Structures are given as structure tokens and as C-alpha cells.
Amino acid sequence: MVREKGDRKVLGMAVVIMAAIICGSTGVAGEYLLNTRGLDSAWLTTFRTSLGGILMLTVLAPRYKGALLDVWKDAHSVVRLAVFGLIGIAANLYLYMLSVQASNAPTATTLQYLSPAFTVLWMALRNRRPPVLKEIVAVTCALIGVVLVSTKGNLDVLSISAHGLVIGVLSAAALAFYGVYPRPLLATYGPLVTYAWGQLVGGVCMNMLRCPLWQFTPPSDGVIDIPLILVLGWQLVFGTVISYAAYLVGVDMIGPSRASMLSSVEPGATAVLAAMLLSTPLVATDYAGIALMTACVVILSLPGAEA
Which structural domain, as residue segments, surrounds residue 253? Predict the structure, then answer.
């Protein structure tokens, strides 16, 4: 029995790390599609949310059957789902894609990991209490990490555009919203159903408000080839469905705190993959910033007062 529990823990840890690496790879795939092949960030967001939502709901339908539609039977849930789909899914992913386009995948992913700091500040305001020590240390790590990534250690000049920095910080705020806002939906309908419908609602919003799926802008070189199709498929299947499902399986096996710690390998995985596959240039301060942002997540995952 003890050995079975140990094996389950090791497997769960491996699954969470795999999910984090896959998430990191989708950022690198986004950099390839946006910065190398010249696809439109709005269209790519519409593609992932629209088809991702349809794909996830199709996979879930045999298991949940009629219960899949329960979220639409309560007016308050419908409103919350609409807001979650628009801001937590569509705006979150779109801002991340814009951040990748304005900089690169490692920088955008690192900036997005500022989201725990936003969550800490929001929870402190909501609960009307000052942050505890570990939260102060974590937020400090996150802020220093952002400074290192955005300045390369030279405080007199930004290493990325001011536009890119603002978009990256907004992306982090949207990710924090994604983590906090849908909690009532998660408690009632479960994470898979909430996420699947959120994806589809986000896709509908992107189609209506920004870029319809059918308005595809060809690559800058005008070539639609196998690498382009494969990377788009990777973004859709692995980035939208498999990484999320794998993470949930890992959480079930090892618990949310340990899973959160292990998932913080994502910025590092993104940096390594970008350097290997796209020759994205990174310097020592980038890696230091990534390490500090990772430390922020790990510190917040340690036992202690809850946010």
C-alpha cells in the first residue's frame, strides 16, 4: 500500500511536470506562428478558443451527457460564464499572444507569472487583511523578476518595448482573474465543464468582437505548409486540451499545492525550448528573472496562511 501511494505520487509529479512543459511549448509554438510565420494574434486566439471549446465539449459529451448543459439552466451561472469566457479565457489568451508578439515566448510567459502577485493583492483587499510574510516575499520576488526580465539588469532602459511590458502585465492580471473569478462555477460544475464552456464562449466573443475564424490571414511568406499545420494542431490539441486535462489528473494525484509548485517549471521550460527550437536569445538576467518568478509560485504554495 505504501509503495502504491509512493508510485502514485511519483506518477502524479511526472504528469504535472509534463503538463507544464506542454504549456511552455505552446508559448514557443505561438512565437513561431506569430513572429516567424506572421500569423495574426487575434485570429490565433479565435482559432484556439473556438475549436478548443468545441473539441473539449465533444470529448466530454459521452461522459457528462445532459449534465453538460446544466450551467445554462441558471441565470447567474450564465452571466458568470459569459464574463469568464470573455475576460478569463479570450482576453487572457489574446493578451498573452500579443505579449509573445511584442517580445518572445520566455519573456511573455515570465511576465504572465506575475499573476500570483495580483491574486495575493486582490485576496488581501477582499479579506481586508494585510499580506502575510510569505505573500510579501513572493510578491517581492515577482516584482524583482519582472524588473530583471524587462530591463536586463540595466534600470536606465527597458529591454522590451513599453507596449510589450504593459501588455505582459495586463496578461498577468487576466490570468489572475482566470484563477479567482470562476471558483463558484468550478465548485458547482467542475473544472472540465467550466473550462470547456469558457473556451467556447471566449471563442464566440473573439468571433463577434475581434476576428472571425474565417478571416484567416495567410503567413507572411504566403506558404501554408506542413510545419505550419502541425504547429497549429499542437496548439489546439496539446495546448488547449491535453495540457489542461493532464494538470487536473496530476492535481488529483498529488494535491493542488504540490502541483502548483511543480507547474512553476513552465517559464524555465519555455526558455529552454525557445532557445533550442527558435534560437531565442536570452541572457543571465532573463534566467535570474525566471528563477525569481518560479520562486514566487513555490513560496505561495508552501504550507501556511492561505490567501
Answer: 2-301
Three-class DSSP category at 125 = helix
Cell 506542413 locates to 226
Structural domain total, the chain: 1
> What is the number of residues in the chain?
307
DSSP 304: S
Is residue 306 assigned to a domain? no
- C-beta atoms surrounding 163 within 10 Å: 12
Kindly indicate the confidence band of residue 43, based on its pLDDT and cuts at 50, 70 and 90: very high
Average pLDDT taken over every residue of the chain: 88
CA 174 to chain centre: 10
The set of long-range contacts for 126-134, using a CB threshold of 8 Å and a minimum separation of 24, is: 132/304, 132/305, 134/299, 134/300, 134/302, 134/304, 134/305
Within a domain: 70: yes
d(CA 149, CA 305): 29
| CA–CA distance, 281 with 149 (Å, rounded to integer) | 12
Does the residue 149 lie in any domain? Answer: yes
Q: Are 112 and 168 in contact (CB under 8 A)?
A: yes
Residue 307 lies in a domain: no
Residue with cell 540595466: 154
- How many other CB atoms sit within 10 Å of the CB of residue 166? 14
Give the DSSP per-residue string, 176-189: HHHHHTTHHHHHHH
Residues 6+ apart with CB under 8 A from 42: 94, 97, 206, 210, 211
pTM: 0.89
Question: Around Cβ 149, how many Cβ atoms within 10 Å?
Answer: 32
Greatest extent of the chain over all pairs of C-alpha atoms, in Å? 59
> What was the pLDDT predicted at 232?
96
Q: For residue 306, give the C-alpha cell.
A: 492561505
